[in-house]
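Working notes for the structural subgroup meeting. M.R. asked for a predicted model of this chain before we commit to crystallization trials. I am recording the input and output together here so anyone reviewing the notebook later can reproduce the run.

Input as submitted:
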Amino acid sequence: MSAARATVRNETHRAAVAREEILLASRTLGAATRQTDLSVPGIHCGGCIRTIERALGALEGVERARVNLSTKRVAVQWRASDAPPPLIETLSALGYVAHLYDGGAEPKDRTRFELLRALAVSGFASSNIMLLSVAVWAGADGATRDLLHWISAAIAIPALAFSGTVFFRPAWRALRQGRTNMDVPISLGVLLAFGMSLYDTVHHGPHAYFDAATSLLFFLLIGRTLDHMMRERARVAVKGLARLAARGAMVAHADGTTEYVPVNEIAPGMTVLVGVGERVPVDAQVEEGRSDLDCSLVSGESMPRPVAVGSTLLAGTLNLTGPLRITATAPASGSFLAEMTRLMEAAEGGRSAYRRIADRAAQLYAPVVHLTALLTFAGWMIASGDLHRAVTIAIAVLIITCPCALGLAVPMVQVVAARRLFEAGIMVKDGGAMERLNEVDTVVFDKTGTLTRGTLRLVAANDHDPAQLAIAAAMAAYSRHPHSQALAAAARGPREPAFDWIEEHPGLGLEAVAGGAVYRLGRAAWAVRGATDGDLAQSDGGTVLSKDGRLIEAFQFEDQIREGARQAVAELSRQGFAMEILSGDQQRPVEALARDLDLAQFGAGVLPGEKTNRIATLAASGRKILMVGDGLNDAPALVAAHVSMAPATAADVGRNAADFVFLHESLAAVPLAIKIAQHADRLIRQNFAFAVAYNVITVPVAICGYVTPLVAALAMSMSSIIVVGNALRLKGGRPARLSQASASGPRVAMQAAEAPSLR
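Returned structure, recorded in token form:
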């Protein structure tokens, strides 16, 4: 009794510790709600999502439980007035190992390696057993046949023991909890086929079905491995965004000393020193200094943003030209970069609805197959009284109804479509995106780096005085500012001799002395005596050259339209797609580009969160959105859209977040990808029709006892071959082959009543 009491006390103590840890690890969402994030590595399908959300949602005090299949995390919101709910204990009772998510480095992806090893073993076993089966089919008899069967058994036993655990473990866990999932009929079919084959081998039977068991396992492992790898790709975008965050920063104390502090320890009110080339660690305000910032993370705009004392800085932006002394206004967990990461993860979680639909169909499949096989067994036992024959026919029913053709109907077309797209210079990162791309009816474009190249060009370079341009280019060679790089690239002929002295003033421009004259290249208010930025249209992104405080030349810059942009927009318009531009750039360049492309709908000065909200608004109105963007600021919108695409020139985070990446310069890749997706959709529907017809024809034949397990395995394999062959009919193309639709063709734009402008 004392031992029992001690055990109870230990369990009570562990539960109290767990709940105390949950309280410490949770974060406040409001006055009445807290949220706890859990890492649950065992989540792998829609059944897991339903089970976990239902169990946690039923706990007292829990208001909402949301599973993110991509990150394998669970976000639980619970009432702050109550004691922390027993989250980890509840998940443990369901068979899931869980721990508090700390936001640190994620463990190595062991599941991927386990699946690949299981796939390799099952592939080796099935190919070798199939070769041995050929000899049996060719007429081997007596002792030779028995020997071949025993060799097949010797190969199959370790293969099933190793590779089969991928399905056996989840099936057993589900059965222990009184549930069923797709792994249960798979495990039954494999084990019964193996057990019957072993029985026939021991009793010198003419048939053994080791090849059917291992081949079934091999094909199903292909699908499970591809499914896992696609989910892992979704996590790469969030990891890439996290890498943009500074690991720490130099903090200045009141006594004049400085100390390097990890970013998570920077608190509001601390003074932080940010050097040239460093990223701003947390949201802050400039206390001292002037500089130019690369804010493409925030707005996607290619123009650097000048900052001075009092300017607001956002975490993740890059300091370009001068050191800054800033005051933190928010902790790292509440920064702009952290908010972007949360936006992406929230959008990822929304995509799980597609997987849930597929798992509901799979959940229906399992009991139907079980019931069919059981009724077949019972019927033959009553009709013949022959146990062996009844079991053999039931196994044949289980095998012949294996959803290989149904399971391959989508992924095989996606694989072939991915190859066709690759041949056209378009990379597919998410197989499910092919299906979603076919559903698109609205295309949303980013501006900088998508519809345009994202590199500045001097406007009307030939209209400038060559001598003045040469001076400006010579000065610009000493700076990495985008305006300077554009001027240096536009220089014609020999440059002016070296200057006597030159210096860059952060946030202002370049100053040089040559022959006693003082030249300044940069902001008008600084370079020209008595001038203001507004006087010289500096607000439009220009820069000026002055000599001894007198204006001698003014330069304007523009972004270049991407090759094929006009043709792509015209092609999409001809096909009836609604289109609009969402850009963080200024009003005037966005409006000019929209006019050039004949697009009536556009939004300028749109921040990342606003882009995501706009996508959500369009989706709520029934639109299926294709988001085409490249910038770091587009990543949450790319993830939130129904499907997304980015050019290869995009930032790493943009490429990782997108479902498609096109390698060619031409934007014609967008309508081409849609065309291939539409063809793929037709083939998928044909494959589904064949899979249904296959089951309608073969299942009754198997139930009637005209099919042996060997024939069932062959029929199952043949159905898979037919599905694969149909998928290979998919035709590709190249961007250049798209019809060159006239830019003056009919325009399809959203009416104001349907999609109000963001302007």
